[in-house]
Amino acid sequence: MHCDESTTPSSSGQNASLLHFDDSDRVAGRPVTDVKFKSFKGFKIHQRQGVPTTALGSVGRHTKISSDDTGKLHLTKKLYKAPNAKRRTLLTQVTSPTRSFIFDPFNLPECVDNLPDTVDLGILNHVARERTATTCTICKSRPARYWCHNCLTLDLYCKECLLSSHASQPLHNVKEWQGSYWARTSLKEVGLVIQLSHPSGMPCVLPKTPYGDDFVIIDGNGIHSVTLRLCGCETAETSPQQLLRFRLFPASTDKPCTAATFSVLEEYHLLALESKVSAHHFYNSLVRRSDNTGLSNNDKDRYEQFMRIAREWRHLKTLKRAGRGHDVRGAAGTKEGECAILCPACPQPGKNLPDNWDKTPKEKEWLYGLFVAIDANFRLKRRAVSKDAVDPSLSGGWSYFVEEQRYKQYLSEHSNTRQEQSTCASHNAVNAADTKVSKGLSATGVGSICCAQHEMKLPGGVGDLQKGERYVNMDYLFFSVLKDTPLKCLNISYDIMCQWSRHLWSRMETMPTSMHFRYEDRKINLFIPKFHLPAHIAKCQWKFSFNFEMGPGHRRDTLDDLIGDSNWKKFIRFGESLLSKLKEAVPERNEHQEDLREFESSLAQQYKEQLAKWKEDVEAWEADMSKPNPFEVRSHFISQASVRLSLAQCDALRIAESSEPPIHPDVSPSVLISTGIDLEDQQRRLRFDMEKLGPHASDHQKRKIVERSNTLIRRMEAWAGIQMLYIPRVASLRSKMVDSDCNNSHLFELWLPSALPILTPCDAGLLEIEWPLRMGQAHDALEELRQALHTCSYMLRFKDRFLRGQGANTRARNSLKIVDAKVDSSAVKYHTAHAALMALSKRLGKTGWDKNLQVLEKDDIRPMTAGTDDRASEGRRRLSWIWLVRGYNEDTTGDNEEQEVQDAIRVEWCKARARAHRWTEEVVLLVEEQRRVLEFLRWQESWWLIKEAEVDTSDLSLKEGLSAYALRQAALKHDLRIHFTRMWQDTQRWDDLQ
């Protein structure tokens, strides 16, 4: 971009290709600041925004950008005054003239057109080997067999010259010529020995071998296995000292066998600070730089050692920058907060304040006031996966976090202190401070104290939170920061200041006396910020960085690269991914096939002919899906919900046809009975929960039970009042109840029609209404029971197959207890419905229903494939009757009832067959995918060999480079194919794969 003659660049010395404003761009005598980037038609414009001023009142900016046919970009900047939100009135215009700019964009199409013809693709990987350089570049006599990947030159070396030239570069990556392409090797394999504590090339008379003689060095260009020798001379230093003088940071001070270079630690430290890269991702990038194919052995994993080194490095750099190495007290004598970086712009007595600052007149005390902001960040959670005894801090309160032991001791002593409720608006930070979810978390976030002007954290002003922003936490952090300050003016900002400050000084009395400070003779101003910034830490980290928006081409190129990398990682992981899937599929297939065989054997005696017919039907449907679907239930089943719908529809019809007023305007007979059954169900669940409560229940658990009981008793009393309108004789029955029974919800007798004594008169219509409702309830209970048994059976199989260890099995048993409770609850629900049906059938003369809904015995409650006797043969095992019942049809009798049973069994068999077939197909497909991968790699290997044979150019260097790259790719595909074949060779011999 070029500025024309009408534009005068500023004298700030910035690059003229940026959009500048000169000294005339000032607002009320103050220069414009806050540089930001904006995009205009693919170009980036450096635009500066004016600072808001109070001298001009409510002043805004308007920047107009336009372009013409010549390619000029015109920019006009104006100031306007906005007295209200409806209109803008021109106040003034910047005196600098309108500026024009001409952009010379990068000619991308020209580059794209010429790139394939002008770029030597052979040099991209530096794989060319000059035919004239068959001898060593240095000695000019021996054959050249080696090339250094990290040296800037393309010199080729013999073995002797390679070792001599790399004595001071022992971590370079070298390659060896294999006759037609370069193959990876290492200086260790060539014979290089790293000797510490002696000048380069000078041998040691007493060299010492490190522990294990397998030293690994982590560097920015990869992870290297090296031959290293320590000095064993009489004046030799310790092993860690020798390594450190060689700029290697050891992972251990006892018997080091791993070290990281200073350069890689500096690189990781900066990346972790600037781009938030994790140690895991950074280390994996080094692994991939060493070998991006996954072919090398993974026995040099030093991730844990790197984590330890990086943590120590960070700690030592902090101590170094804090001058602890220059203090006679050393690191052990470091005081709390001494390693923190202080804000140079805030008042620091003895550091940046004038003499006699404490004698400043009161009207100017604000000049030396400290602005403090209090806030919390709930994104910085920490899971409860470790503890301080296992993972202690290297600097206990030396920087920004408070000293942990005293902090936790104070919190423990005041753990029962209740948070004061807000008298202002309903602030969640106040009212929900004690209720924030903290299950599984050691810290729900952090509270912090920083200087409000510059957002720098203050020493000792950060601490973990266990719940929300509790006063007990924030008070400790606040007084920890200000306990020693001699400043007389404090300006404190907090988003809940109106609540937090109410009893601040009385709460200070509960603090240790060392944290008290005199507030009576200080000027303390309390504020609520106009905008609450919840992410102070993130803002600090990004304060000095510029953020750029990618152009469309750049963005696409970047995404292409990312997607390509993702595909490549999946490509080289096909070996382990397909193997993992196959290891899962084969047992699943075997298990579901066995379940199907058990199911069919249990059906063989009673439903042998039907089973053969079902197989024909399902195979015919699989061949032609226009035929009847065997998975569909063909009988008409109804549940309790459908019964209620039918009764409600009957009520609506009766209301439309009847002219007599109802007994109750809001509660019909069907609503009365259905509500009574609901209350009975709630009563049963409450009784069940009370039995589980146990003798050592907490007050919280007891309170919840009592509240549920109180709510239920009020509902039942209201329902009983309406019940007496329909069944008047219930009043005499209820009068005989003991007062304690009437007041206890779990003992309250509802006296539904089915529970009335046989001699107590009751409207036959009510009995007819309860009958289908109880039928629906019984079938709902059986369905819930079957689902719970399915879940229990699956969890038991999962536990036996996959879970090992006391912790995992304990958690599994706890989950099984919940499912077992569901089984028991469903069984009790069925017993209640069955007992009601027995009583109703005597009054209504119903018969035959108990052939379908039998008495539920304990032995009947079992999974589908389990028999009543474990010693019974496969052919003698029979399904429990609960698996043969599906729904209820009022018209079901005789042959229709048997047909419904067969319908239910057919659907279950079809599902079991489908599961077994799908897992069988999965195994077959995975075996086929393995074959396809190997065949594809074989094809790619051949494809690269063909490409190498098709190289045709007169440039020998280019020809050799292209040829070598093709051969290397072919060799890589060959190695991957062999690698995958070896990984899968055991699975291919599995007898049960076919």
TrEMBL record:
Polar residues bias spans: 1-17
CxC2-like cysteine cluster KDZ transposase-associated domain boundaries: 187-294
Coiled-coil positions: 589-624
Keyword line: Coiled coil
KW Transport (keyword) present: no
InterPro entries xref list: CxC2_KDZ-assoc, KDZ
Span list, region Disordered: 1-22
The protein's name in its UniProt record: CxC2-like cysteine cluster KDZ transposase-associated domain-containing protein
Organism of this sequence: Boletus edulis BED1
Lineage: Eukaryota, Fungi, Dikarya, Basidiomycota, Agaricomycotina
